[in-house]
Every structure is written in structure tokens, then in C-alpha cells.
Q: What sequence folds into this?
């Protein structure tokens, strides 16, 4: 898993459709204790994708703060969430690398794993030809990225 974390190729265990189908069945108060009440969308080309946002005023954030008073792991997660507004890449990597060491008979670890796994979204499918469709423009000229000379710096091409 360590190599996957470094390459950024982690695949979530739940596909988004199954995850959102499950989340729509839980009580609204339970949902809003962790997540924002409404599901947001990320525009991606002509489609929209749902994703979860953590509720920064919710009970889970307060739970992390309280748990962090006696557990350095959760103090770090709380501080990370407070500073970055989400789980940072360091928090994600730490969970993926060290989750085997968590004692899942403890409620705090089961809850953390649940929140983490549900927060992780399916990766966006980026078309193979995305780079060939990127267009650079200046005031007077338009350049196709794929048509730029490979060895000359871009500034020389302008």
C-alpha cells in the first residue's frame, strides 16, 4: 500500500453510488453530525459529481477535539481538520499506511475509519487525451499544447 500512497493511486473501497445510496438511508441528525446537510457537486466537463463535505460545526469535529485531549492521533486529526478544512494528504497517507495498527474493538477507531472511508471519493476519470485538448492563449496567439516544441522553453515559442 505504501507505493500506492506515493503514486496517488488509492482506490476507495466503496463506489460512490453505493456510498450515497447508504447515506440517503441514515437519519438526518446522524448525517449532519459528521457531514454537511446537503450533498455538494463538483462540475467535471459536462457532468456533475457528488462529494461529501465534513460539517465543521458538527458533533464529529467536537468529538475529535475531546478525544484528542487524551489521544495524540486524534489531536492531530482535529488540528489538521481545523487548519486545512479537510483531511490533509498527510492524514490520508497516515491512515492508509497505519490502519492495520488500529484496534477496531475501540469505538473511536471504528468511527474514524468509517468517516475516513466514506469521505474518500472515487477518483475522477481523466480522459487519456486531456493534455492534447489543453489550449494555451495569449493576447494575440493561441497555441495547442500538443503542438508546442518539446525542447524549446514555452517562452521562446511565444
A:
Amino acid at each position: 500500500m505504501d507505493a500506492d500512497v506515493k503514486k496517488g493511486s488509492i482506490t476507495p473501497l466503496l463506489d460512490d453510488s453505493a456510498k450515497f445510496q447508504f447515506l440517503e438511508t441514515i437519519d438526518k441528525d446522524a448525517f449532519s453530525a459528521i457531514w454537511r446537510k446537503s450533498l455538494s457537486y463538483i462540475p467535471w466537463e459536462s457532468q456533475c459529481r457528488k462529494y461529501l463535505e465534513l460539517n465543521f460545526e458538527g458533533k464529529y469535529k467536537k468529538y475529535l477535539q475531546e478525544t484528542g485531549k487524551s489521544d495524540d492521533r486524534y489531536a492531530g486529526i482535529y488540528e489538521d481538520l481545523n487548519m486545512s478544512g479537510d483531511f490533509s494528504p498527510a492524514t490520508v497517507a497516515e491512515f492508509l499506511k497505519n490502519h492495520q495498527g488500529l484496534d477496531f474493538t475501540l469505538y473511536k477507531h471504528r468511527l474514524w475509519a468509517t468517516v475516513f472511508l466514506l469521505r474518500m471519493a472515487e477518483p475522477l476519470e481523466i480522459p487519456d487525451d486531456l493534455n492534447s485538448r489543453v489550449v494555451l492563449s495569449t493576447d494575440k496567439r493561441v497555441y495547442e499544447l500538443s503542438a508546442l516544441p518539446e525542447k524549446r522553453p514555452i517562452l521562446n515559442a511565444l
About this structure: The chain has eight helices and four strands. Helices lie at 2-7, 16-23, 28-34, 59-68, 72-84, 89-98, 107-119, 154-157.
